[in-house]
């Protein structure tokens, strides 16, 4: 019997794999390294392993020679073969054949709309590790680590080694991602909260040095583009998300600031960032100072 486990949710996919394997002997293969003869041997030939063994093959779709001819191979129904894949092209002949002949399961990553379910899942995971997290703490972890359950699970494992879990400890272990800091930086500048602007600039400079300034400018330009699109679209998040292929959650967070920005303000924002970017590339002035000066002028 062939099983196909595919999708980008690695945590759920690995859990399904463990459940399928059970206590059986497991023989693992990297699909990219197999030859067609190897695959024929696995599918129906006699092997050194017991007939009750489970054969787990990862990334076979990356091996075009085998993947394109998989439907042509004979398979022993008494053998358990599990194909483990990430994203698959569902238009291919092989995928359509597997849909008809194999037991397939797709594991999709969680989205922003499923954050409440993910918070509840984290609460359960923490209890299973014999400690408790507040929903606020879990929300912070999700905002900083993302919706990847495997990544969250690994971090929850780390927290199980800590004697006391505090908000301060979480801030130390999971500092804000650069994109989160830059979002706060951009919003603080629009709100004329210059103390926060200075504090975030100082933090980013100490964490990433001169090179980080150029990455930060790129992220600020991205925030300004999203802001301009929101203002010109009259705050229509869905339209902007579709047109720019931007995460709706990012736009939703910018929406309140966008309501205070008009066309003339957009011009000032773009001009200030353009001049700062130009000076960063053509002068020897500290790039962080140029960024802070530009933001204060917004």
From TrEMBL:
The keyword Methyltransferase does not apply. It catalyses: DNA(n) + a 2'-deoxyribonucleoside 5'-triphosphate = DNA(n+1) + diphosphate. GO terms for molecular function: DNA binding; DNA-directed DNA polymerase activity. It is an enzyme of class 2 (transferase). Pfam families: DNA_pol3_delta_C. GO terms for cellular component: DNA polymerase III complex. Residues 180-297 form the DNA polymerase III delta subunit-like C-terminal domain. This is DNA-directed DNA polymerase. It comes from Candidatus Nanosynbacter featherlites.
């Amino acid at each position: 019997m062939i099983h196909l486990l595919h999708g980008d949710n690695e945590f759920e996919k690995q859990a399904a794999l463990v459940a399928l394997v059970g206590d059986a002997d497991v023989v693992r293969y990297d699909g990219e390294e197999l030859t067609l003869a190897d695959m024929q041997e696995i599918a129906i030939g006699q092997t050194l392993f017991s007939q009750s063994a489970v054969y787990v093959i990862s990334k076979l779709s990356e091996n075009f020679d085998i993947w394109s001819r998989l439907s042509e191979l004979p398979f022993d129904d008494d053998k358990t073969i599990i194909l483990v894949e990430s994203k698959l092209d569902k238009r291919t002949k092989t995928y359509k054949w597997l849909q008809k002949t194999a037991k397939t399961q797709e594991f999709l990553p969680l989205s922003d709309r499923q954050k409440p379910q993910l918070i509840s899942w984290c609460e359960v995971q923490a209890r299973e590790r014999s400690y408790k997290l507040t929903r606020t703490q879990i929300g912070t972890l999700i905002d900083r680590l993302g919706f990847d359950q495997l990544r969250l699970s690994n971090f929850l494992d780390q927290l199980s080694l800590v004697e006391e879990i505090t908000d301060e400890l979480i801030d130390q272990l999971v500092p804000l991602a650069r994109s989160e800091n830059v979002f706060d930086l951009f919003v603080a500048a629009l709100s004329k909260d210059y103390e926060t602007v200075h504090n975030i600039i100082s933090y980013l400079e100490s964490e990433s040095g001169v090179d980080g300034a150029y990455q930060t400018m790129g992220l600020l330009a991205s925030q300004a583009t999203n802001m301009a699109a929101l203002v010109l679209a009259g705050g229509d998040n869905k339209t902007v998300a579709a047109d720019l292929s931007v995460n709706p959650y990012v736009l939703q967070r910018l929406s309140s600031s966008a309501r205070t920005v008009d066309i003339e303000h957009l011009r000032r924002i773009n001009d200030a960032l353009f001049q700062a970017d130009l000076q960063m590339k053509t002068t020897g002035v500290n790039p962080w100072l140029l960024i802070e000066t530009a933001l204060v002028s917004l």
